[in-house]
């Protein structure tokens, strides 16, 4: 019995090692195909690059480089609907690939799906604490005429700048908040209270100062 158990254990170790070796080879092959795809992109051979990215994903469906590269390429050549599908598929297979959320947000915005795009970019900015993405989100809200949401986003940027002790970004955010408070006016309960209680007056004063 002991000899049989040892034999089974040895067999399990050998099989495990073989599987790891196979996985390592697959990963290496996938990475090589991604490098080839990028080289073809640089040579303006986009069709070949697409094939290489697809081949890489066929070998390794969780290849982050292949998903992001394929999505960016689709966006660059103007195949926006396919770009959105690529990033959605990437997130199904690699939910932790936050960069795919940002990529999908930009594709959805280009497709005119602004609410979905804004939701994606908000999620990405929050998860990555990315000020650049939050600035882009504020710009999108402005283009959509959603000034209260734009104001709320700049207030978030102001809070981040204060936490990070970034005086340049803080000054910019305060200026934007003050300007947007004027634009929003009555639509912003913090800056234009309707009830004359002290709490609302205090909130209004803070809002007018820019936070």
Summarize the entry for a quick read.
The chain is 81% helix and 0% strand.
Describe it.
The chain is mainly α and 211 residues long. The chain has 2 domains: 24-128, Alpha Horseshoe (Serine Threonine Protein Phosphatase 5, Tetratricopeptide repeat), CATH 1.25.40; 130-211. The chain is built from 10 helices and no strands. The protein has helices spanning 2-42, 46-59, 64-76, 80-93, 98-110, 114-128, 131-143, 147-163, 167-184, 198-209. Helix 1 packs parallel to helix 3 (64-76), helix 3 packs antiparallel against helix 4 and helix 8 runs antiparallel to helix 9 (167-184). The longest helix has 41 residues, at 2-42. It starts with a helix and ends with a helix.
The CATH C-level class name of the largest domain: Mainly Alpha
Largest sheet: none
Shape designation? elongated
Report the C-alpha radius of gyration, rounded: 25 Å
Strand content: under 5%
Helix content: over 70%
**Total beta-strand segments:** 0
- In CATH, the topology of the largest domain is named Serine Threonine Protein Phosphatase 5, Tetratricopeptide repeat
The domain count comes to 2
Q: Alpha-carbon distance between the termini?
A: 75 Å
CATH architecture of the largest domain: Alpha Horseshoe
In round numbers, the mean pLDDT is 84
Q: Tell me the CATH superfamily of the largest domain.
A: Tetratricopeptide repeat domain
Low-confidence stretches: 7-24, 188-204
> Can you count the helices?
10
The H-and-E topology, N to C, reads as HHHHHHHHHH
SS content category: mainly alpha
């Amino acid at each position: 019995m002991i000899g049989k158990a040892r034999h089974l254990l040895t067999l399990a170790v050998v099989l495990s090692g073989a599987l790891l070796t196979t996985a390592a080879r697959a990963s290496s092959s996938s990475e090589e195909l991604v490098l080839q795809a990028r080289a073809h992109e640089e040579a303006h051979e986009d069709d070949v690059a697409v094939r290489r990215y697809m081949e890489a994903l066929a070998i390794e469906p969780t290849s982050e480089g292949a998903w992001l590269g394929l999505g960016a390429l689709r966006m660059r050549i103007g195949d926006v609907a396919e770009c959105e599908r690529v990033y959605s598929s990437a997130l199904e297979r690699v939910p932790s690939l936050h960069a795919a959320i940002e990529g999908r947000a930009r594709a959805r915005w280009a497709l005119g799906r602004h609410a979905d795009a804004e939701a994606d970019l908000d999620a990405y900015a929050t998860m990555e604490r990315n000020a650049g993405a939050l600035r882009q989100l504020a710009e999108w809200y402005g283009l959509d005429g959603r000034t209260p949401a734009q104001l709320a986003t700049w207030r978030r940027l102001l809070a981040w700048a204060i936490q990070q002790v970034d005086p340049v970004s803080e000054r910019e955010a305060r200026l934007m908040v003050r300007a947007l408070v004027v634009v929003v006016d009555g639509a912003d309960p913090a800056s234009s209270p309707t009830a004359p209680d002290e709490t609302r007056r205090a909130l209004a004063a803070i809002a007018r100062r820019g936070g």
